[in-house]
Amino acid sequence: MEHSHLIKLLQRTLSPSDAEALTAIRKANQYLKACDESWETVFRLSPEVDQRVSSERVSDPRQEVFEMVHRTLNLGEGFLREIRRANRK
């Protein structure tokens, strides 16, 4: 599974157009199915990471989600820069 493709689809769910957002989530679901994956496997944390995330306090919920996705997908710095750049747009 190519995570960058899934991320692009999920970014489209932020569209003010309900039709575009709905289409994006449906395409993401289709992509996961084609890759024989599920949302559960994409976002599943190991028990060790889950415990660490649960014990951390983050004031910005968006940052908390970002950190959880980063840990879950074990993403590199290049990907992190790409996400941060997308968040600034």
Distance between the termini: 26 Å
Report strand %: under 5%
Low-confidence stretches: none
Helix share, percent = over 70%
Reading the helices and strands in chain order gives HHHHHH
Which structural traits does this protein have?
2 domains; mainly alpha; about 75% helix; about 90 residues; about 0% strand
Characterization of this structure:
With 89 residues, this protein is mainly α. It folds into two domains: 41 residues, no CATH class; 45 residues, no CATH class. 74% of the residues lie in helices and 0% in strands. It has six helices and no strands. Helix 1 runs antiparallel to helix 2. The chain starts with a helix and ends with a helix.
Topology:
Layout lengths: L2 H10 L5 H17 L4 H5 L3 H9 L5 H13 L3 H12 L1
Question: What can be said about this structure in brief?
Answer:
The chain has 89 residues and is mainly alpha-helical. It has helices at 3-12, 18-34, 39-43, 47-55, 61-73, 77-88.
